[in-house]
Amino acid sequence: MTKTDSEFEAFVNRALEKDNPFEPPPELKMRPMEWMASLARLYADIESFLADHVTRGAIRISYEETELQERYIGTYSARTMLIAIGREEVRLTPVGTLVIGGRGRVDVTGSAGDIRLVLIHKDARRPQDLIKVTIKDETSRDQDAIASPRSGAEDYTWKIATPPPSVYFDELTKSSFYEVLMEVSNA
Predict the structure, then answer these.
(1) What is the predicted pLDDT for the residue at 149?
(2) How far apart are CA 144 and CA 130, in angstroms?
(3) What residue ranges of the chain have pLDDT lower than 50?
């Protein structure tokens, strides 16, 4: 057996070890149910933002099912929102729940690009707010990150994530959602 053969064999064995089934923590088992409720709230908010335009027939909203596959959670179905404004179509596609520092992501895609909506802690303004780093010495004191693993679903809200490298999380309001729609539609 050559060195490359033995290295490849070791690689295969490590990959198989990683694929061994394990019991996910209880909070991961609850994610799909919490995620569906959060998506429903997001879509209800957007429907209310657009209600006047939908009522007068200027905007049409429909849904289609999207199948998602997430490691440790499995396969499940979620709704994708379709917003039709004339010939322009904007899709709000769920990406998943396993997001660093958050509880989910939805991509808003139109003919001119895409923008991310993230389900993160309500007090977060930038990614640094979601991370806790502790260095202990005699003079330091602990500073907690805003979001902790114990934060409940009520502590999370949908926000607009600006593109990297300088990511900020902006509040999702009626006006900010209008700006998102215009940006992804090149209006």
Answers:
(1) 47
(2) 9
(3) 145-150
By three-state DSSP, how is residue 1 classified? coil
Beta bridge partners of residue 100, listed in sequence order: none
Q: Which strands form 102-110's sheet, in the order they lie side by side?
A: 59-70, 74-85, 88-96, 102-110, 113-121, 156-161, 169-171
Question: What whole-number distance in Å separates Cα of residue 14 and Cα of residue 173?
Answer: 47
Bond into 165 cis (ω within 30): yes
Closest CA to 48 of 176, 184, 174: 174
Question: Can you tell me whether residue 126 is helix, strand or coil?
Answer: coil
C-alpha R_g of the chain: 21
Nearest C-alpha neighbor of 120 from the set 82, 161, 89, 86:
161
Q: Can you read off the two tokens belonging to residue 134?
A: 């502790």
- pTM of the shown model: 0.76
CA–CA dist 54, 68 (Å, integer): 29
Reduced 3-state DSSP string for 55-120: HCCCEEEEEEEEEEEECCCEEEEEEEEEEEECCEEEEEEEEECCCCCEEEEEEEEECCEEEEEEEE
The CA distances from residue 73 to 15, 41, 135, 150, 185, in Å, are 19, 21, 33, 19, 33
